[in-house]
């Protein structure tokens, strides 16, 4: 598990990340098909949030390639990254993970506006329809 590997032997980091998840401070969570997690985690005592990016190894081996956070602890392990990892383990749903089989739609050409006159052109000489027979039109056939 990524979270347990990240917080291993860091009791304070473990507790702070658990508290963040339990108090719903993970505001956004998204994982793409390249195994990159992007999250927004609210700071503990401030009315601000930090953007977190976590790159996981391509194999599902519990190893984190790299992680960044906007908090002052940037190059050190922070509880915002740990909270995002724990949230991903405990609460993330399939809707938080981008489906790799969904392709972006190709841009469609603009739709042409059709007027009523174009849809229903007026009768042309020599043209008759079934509706015209009741109005005195003659059969041209």
Q: What would your notes on this structure say?
A:
The chain has four helices and four strands, in the order H-H-E-E-E-E-H-H. With 141 residues, the protein is of the alpha+beta class.
Identify the notable features of this structure and list them briefly.
single chain; 141 residues; alpha+beta; four-stranded antiparallel beta sheet; 4 strands; 24% helix; 19% strand; Znf_SWIM; zinc; zinc-finger
Reconstruct the topology from this structure:
Blueprint: H1 2-7, H2 11-22, E1 26-31, E2 36-42, E3 49-56, E4 64-69, H3 79-90, H4 116-119
Antiparallel strand pairs: 1-2, 2-3, 3-4
Helix pairs in contact: 2-3
Keywords: Metal-binding, Zinc, Zinc-finger
Organism: Dreissena polymorpha (Zebra mussel)
GO molecular function, one term: zinc ion binding
For the biggest sheet, the summary is: 4 strands, antiparallel
In DSSP terms (H or I, runs of 4 or more residues), the helix count works out at 4
Provide the spatial order of strands within the biggest beta sheet. 1-2-3-4
Percentage of helical residues? 10-25%
Structural class: alpha+beta
Gross morphology is: rod-shaped
Determine the strand fraction and express it as a percent band: 15-25%
| Cα-atom radius of gyration | 30 Å
End-to-end distance? 81 Å
SSE order: HHEEEEHH
What integer is the average pLDDT? Answer: 78
Low-pLDDT regions: none
How many strands?
4
Give the gist of this structure.
The chain has 141 residues and is of the alpha+beta class.
């Amino acid at each position: 598990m990524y979270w347990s590997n990240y917080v291993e032997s860091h009791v304070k980091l473990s507790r702070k990340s658990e508290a963040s998840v339990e108090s719903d401070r993970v505001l956004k969570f998204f994982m793409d098909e390249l195994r990159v997690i992007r999250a927004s985690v609210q700071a503990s005592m401030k009315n601000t949030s930090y953007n977190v990016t976590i790159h996981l190894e391509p194999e599902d081996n519990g190893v984190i390639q790299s992680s960044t956070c906007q908090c002052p602890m940037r190059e050190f392990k922070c509880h915002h990254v740990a909270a995002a990892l724990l949230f991903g383990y405990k609460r993330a749903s399939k809707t938080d993970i981008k489906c790799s089989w969904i392709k972006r739609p190709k841009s469609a050409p603009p739709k042409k506006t059709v007027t009523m006159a174009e849809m229903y052109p007026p009768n042309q000489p020599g043209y008759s329809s079934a509706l015209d027979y009741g109005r005195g039109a003659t059969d041209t056939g």
